[in-house]
Amino acid sequence: MHILIIHQAFASLDEPGGTRHYELARYLAQRGHQVTVIASPVSYITGAASSFSGTNVEGVRVLRASVYSAHHRSFFHRMLAFFSFMLSSFWIGLGVKNVDVVWGTSPPIFQGVTAWALARLKGAKFLFEVRDLWPQFAIAVGVLRNGLLIRLSEWLERLLYRSADRIMVNSPGFVVHVQERGGKRVELIPNGADPAMFDPSNRGVNYRRVHHLEDRYVVMYAGAHGMSNDLEVVLEAARLLSDLPQVQIALVGDGKEKHALMAQAEAMGLSNVSFLPAVPKSGMPEVLAAADACIAILKPLEEYKTTYPNKVFDYMAAGRPVALAIDGVIRQVVDAAACGYFAQPGDERALADAIRKLAVHPQQSREMGLGGRSYLEQNFSRDRMAEKLVSLLEEVAGR
């Protein structure tokens, strides 16, 4: 079976960003399937050139499509990047032969148009993956405001849902939304993590030494520094934790809000906050090993109650307890695993209290983290998700 994946933000283990699709593509290749990916030549997180193209050692063929690269500058520039990829990936996709399934993923939703068009032209099946509820999330955070653009985006969303031979969602919170807008055959293959990548006994000694964290209780946020991530609340929580000199909050990653956050932390005089560079997924085991606890946070929007953030599963795989400032379906996972404390989103005092409980009871927190890893191994390991994906693709392709 030949699967063609259209994914602008596709990232390998050697790049920052989510690697769900790389890991799943690698698994498909190991099972003997042919996998071709059309992706952007620049990292969506950092803007740097992507690390590989062609066929890598694990059998995943990656083709790079030209793209407008100034996507961090504004919403308008981001739209230019999305549309440029939609067109260039379609052109490259025309040259990919003998395709059985075209797998399009959203957001950005426009690459779903590419996947749908290529599938129809090639007589292949169209699998549409919904990773975020776009445009609903963009409307909720105020990025998409123009009434005409909203109506056009919602029309496009419904068109793709109705046109897909099968729809895959990565969170149970998305199922009803998709079905209400015309999606019929909706399959849940949730986010997860590969526990084999992480060693919970590793304490990240080298990483701590390099970043002067040796004697601290390190509470880490690892991920994008964007407008949805609400990291201003983390800075306010750090201010409230200044009476615990052993606690150091480490913000690892990059994004368009990072410079503003660094300036805000300096203006607040926060010596208990460290801004650390983004690392590729291959480096995340060592980074998370240096953490004693981790933070997952999003803005306090109803829409975000539907999400399964990747980072929470990585934290669990690393055996680290979570201070969770996200309500909804991911809270249900953390509660079921008993691997962290919930803090009401948008409430810096609640987040500070959650971190404080973790820091003042380190042994109990350590046990919570290990319990989270065990729960992930049983319910959300990447291999389990990959097996479900193989079955879905073979069914879609009629194999």
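Next protein, fold it too.
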Amino acid sequence: MVEQVDNIINKLSGIETTSLTEQHDSNNSDQKFYCDAKNQEQLNDFVDSVRPKLVALVGFPGYGKSTFIGSLYQLLTTNLSYGGYNLVDSDTYVGFERRVFLRRVNNDNTSDTKRNVLGENDILHLKLRSEGDGSYHDILVSDKAGETYSKYISSDRDTETDNVLINADIVVFFVDAEMDSGRLATHNLLVENYESLLTRLKIQQKLLDGLSYIVVYSKIDKVNTDELKKKLSERKKQTCGVFKNIIGRDPESVCDVNSTDLNDNHLEALFCKLIQPKGSYQEQHDLDWVKSEIEKEK
């Protein structure tokens, strides 16, 4: 399936499959493309005179992270202006296209999104221009496969190598609203998984004091009966309490979104918040955190 996805993208975009780095066998699903998503070791490539804003999307498999970021890309590329900004460039166009092409080729106009696979590059880049003063800023979004966070629950080694969370300007935690409003056993598993993940991240000092974070309840359109809505409302207190108890502070906001609905007002408000530039920028000498971590490992 992955190979078929890549072949379709190449036909649609006209992009050569020859990598700028090492070439891989054409049957290898790990083949890398020019302008594909980057990995965390390549983050410094985006640094110029200021540090880009780094947004980390966190959630387990099927929680809607890729659909979410795919919808933001769709809105930025189809609107001349969005949230007071214009999309002027991206170094990861193919990375975005790999996430949104299904919704473009489906005849029934559904918003399917290609799910990330474990180990796939996760860093996506947006360069935006303010309509107000014409200034430019960069946004980096980490969209790791949900299986990555499942592995974090039981692996100190995998958690230790994550340098995105500790340096993120804002972390967006995804909760599957359909799952959280479903059977009690399913809800309990969701809570247990997040307790385990957050506890390990806290122990590994990946969640720093003062962390800025948002909790997003995705697939809210699936919670479509009074009974499910009541269950979700009651269970939100416990689920959100896990984040507060372990992280040590309330989230900036808790949002209910339908990421497949590009006209969702809650989704638009959240996107506008995420694409805003940072309030202040750090100097260049504070930016090479990836290189610093690599040096520590030598």
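About the second fold: Residues 45-83+141-278 form a domain with the Rossmann fold fold (CATH 3.40.50.300).
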